[in-house]
Write a structure and sequence with these properties.
Layout lengths: L12 H20 L3 E2 L5 E3 H8 L4 H5 L3 E3 L5 E4 L4 H10 L9 E10 L11 E10 L4 H18 L5 E6 L3 H17 L6 H5 L14 H8 L10 H16 L5 E2 L11 E8 L9 E7 L3 H4 L7 E7 H7 L10 E7 L4 H16 L4 E3 L6 H10 L2 E7 L5 E5 L5 E4 L4 H7 L4
Parallel strand pairs: 1-5, 7-8, 12-13, 12-14
Antiparallel strand pairs: 2-4, 3-4, 5-6, 6-11, 7-9, 9-10, 10-11, 14-15, 15-16
Helix pairs in contact: 1-5, 2-4, 5-9
This protein binds adenosine monophosphate.
C-alpha cells in the first residue's frame, strides 16, 4: 500500500475541525488588531531563502526542499514565511501604503527535518508581521497578540522567554568578547564546548556539564553589552508587557534559528510538548531583512507559531458534533421515493438547515441508526407519495406530514 511520505500527515475531519477553530481564533484576534491576511506561493526562488534566512543556518544548509523547475531556475518549497512576506511587501510596493503594514498568514511550510512528535516535514504556521515600524510598541503588540492566540486556543501554561540581540555590530563585538572569555577558561570547560568555541561560542550556554555551567554563570552576557538605544528599546517592550500583566522570563542566551533577528527576540514554550520540542512559537525584530533582500532599509517585526504544536499543547476540546437538523430516510428502494428524498434534502439545505440523505442503501432500521449516529434532530421517512412520516428524535414522537410542511415545521422549531 502506498503511504504518505515520512514526516507528513493527513488531516482527518476531527482534526480539521480543531484546526479550523484555531484558524477562526487567529482570524478574529489578528483581524481585530488590523492585520490583513496574506497568502504567498508554496514555492519561491531559492535565493530568497538563502539571502533571507541566512546561508549559514541549519534551514538553508540542510533542511530545504529545493528543485530545478525544468528551465534551469532553482526553486524551494517555503521553509518559513517571513522572507516571502517581505518579498511580497516589496514586489507590491506596500512601502507606499500607510506604514506600518500589518499582515498575518496561516500556511504550510516544508523542512527536511528528522520527524518526531511535534516535528514534521510539512507543517503549518500561523504568523504575523508588522513591516515599516521600528517602535517597541509593535514588538509588544505582536507578543501580546501571540499570547492571546495561544490563550484562545487553550494552550497549557505557555512560558514566555524574551531577550534582545541588539544590532549585528553589537553581536559581532560580543561574540569576540565571549570567544576570548571561553579561550581564557578553556581548562574549566567540557571538551565538546572547547571544540566548538570558534564555530558557535553561544552554544556554551546550553552545555549540560556542571563545571561548564558554573563557568558560564560568570561569562559576559549580550544583554549587558547592548547599546544605550537598544537597551532603551528593550526596556520599553518589557514595560508594556508588565503593564499588560503578561509574565515573562528574561533568557539572555535565547538564540533563534534564523539569522535575521535584531533587538527583541522571544519564544513561547510549553511543558506539554515535552523537553525536546517545547517551542510553540517565537519571533522577533528583523530590521535588516528587507535590505538584505535588496529593498530599502525597513524596520520590521513578527512571529510564527506552529499549528500542530499549539494543538499538541492544548487539551482536546469536548467534541462538538455539528448538529444535523434533518435526516431523510427512504421507506422503500423506489426511484420516486429516492428522488423526493433528494429534493427534500436540497430544499432543506437551501433553507439553511443542515440535512443529510441516506446514501448507503441501508435497511429502514439501519437508516434510523445512522440518523441517530449523526445526531439528527428530525427524520423524514419518504415513501413513494405524500405524506411523509416525520419523527422527532429526542422525544421519539412521530406524525404524518405533508412533504411541503417538513421544512417549515423544522424552521419553526415546533415540537410534535
Ligand atoms: P521557526 O520558524 O523555526 O521560528 O518556527 C516557528 C514555529 O514553527 C516553531 O516554534 C514551531 O512551533 C513550528 N515549527 C517549526 N518547525 C517545525 C516542524 N518541523 N514541525 C512542526 N512545527 C514546526
Amino acid at each position: 500500500m502506498i503511504q504518505a511520505p515520512k514526516g507528513t500527515f493527513d488531516v482527518l475531519p476531527a482534526d480539521a475541525e480543531r484546526r479550523s477553530v484555531l484558524e477562526s481564533h487567529a482570524a478574529r484576534i489578528l483581524g481585530a488588531a488590523g492585520y490583513g491576511r496574506i497568502e504567498t506561493p508554496t514555492f519561491e526562488a531559492t535565493e530568497l531563502f538563502a539571502r533571507g534566512v541566512g546561508e549559514a543556518t541549519d534551514i538553508v544548509q540542510k533542511e530545504m526542499y529545493t528543485f530545478d523547475d525544468g528551465g534551469g531556475r532553482s526553486l524551494t518549497l517555503r521553509p518559513e514565511g517571513t522572507a516571502p512576506v517581505c518579498r511580497a511587501y516589496m514586489e507590491h510596493g506596500m512601502h507606499k501604503l500607510a506604514q506600518p503594514v500589518k499582515l498575518w498568514y496561516l500556511s504550510s511550510f516544508f523542512r527536511a527535518e528528522a520527524p518526531q512528535r511535534g516535528r514534521y516535514r510539512q507543517f503549518w504556521q500561523i504568523g504575523a508581521e508588522v513591516i515599516g515600524s521600528a517602535s517597541p510598541e509593535s514588538d509588544a503588540e505582536l507578543i501580546l497578540l501571540l499570547a492571546d492566540v495561544l490563550e484562545a486556543a487553550g494552550a497549557r501554561e505557555p512560558r514566555l522567554l524574551i531577550s534582545s540581540l541588539g544590532t549585528p555590530a553589537t553581536r559581532a563585538e560580543y561574540r569576540e568578547e565571549l570567544t576570548a572569555f571561553l579561550k581564557a577558561h578553556a581548562d574549566e570547560l567540557s571538551p565538546e564546548v572547547v571544540q566548538r568555541i570558534d564555530l558557535n561560542p553561544l552554544r556554551a550556554f546550553d552545555a549540560k556539564d556542571p563545571a561548564t555551567q558554573r563557568t558560564m554563570r560568570e561569562a559576559p552576557k549580550l544583554l549587558d553589552r547592548l547599546s544605550p538605544e537598544d537597551a532603551e528599546h528593550f526596556q520599553r517592550v518589557r514595560e508594556m508587557l508588565d503593564d499588560a500583566d503578561l509574565s515573562y522570563e528574561l533568557e539572555p542566551t535565547l538564540v533563534r534559528g534564523l539569522d535575521y533577528y535584531t533587538r527583541t527576540v522571544y519564544e513561547f514554550t510549553s511543558e506539554a510538548l515535552g523537553a525536546a520540542q517545547s517551542t510553540i512559537g517565537g519571533g522577533g525584530r528583523y530590521d535588516g531583512l528587507i535590505e538584505a533582500l535588496g529593498g530599502p532599509s525597513t524596520p520590521a517585526s513578527g512571529w510564527a507559531a506552529g499549528v500542530e504544536r499549539i494543538l499538541l499543547a492544548s487539551p482536546e476540546p469536548p467534541a462538538v458534533a455539528s448538529p444535523v437538523d434533518l435526516f431523510v430516510a427512504i421507506a422503500a428502494p423506489d426511484p420516486t421515493a429516492a428522488r423526493t428524498a433528494f429534493n427534500l434534502v436540497s430544499e432543506a439545505r437551501r433553507a439553511g438547515l443542515s440535512a443529510q440523505l441516506e446514501l448507503a442503501g441501508r435497511s429502514l432500521k439501519g437508516q434510523l441508526k445512522q440518523a441517530d449516529r449523526v445526531g439528527a434532530r428530525y427524520v423524514a421517512l419518504v415513501g413513494d407519495g405524500s405524506p411523509v412520516a416525520f419523527k422527532q428524535m429526542d422525544t421519539g414522537e412521530q406524525t404524518d406530514l405533508d412533504r411541503d410542511a417538513v421544512i417549515p415545521t423544522i424552521l419553526r422549531g415546533s415540537r410534535l
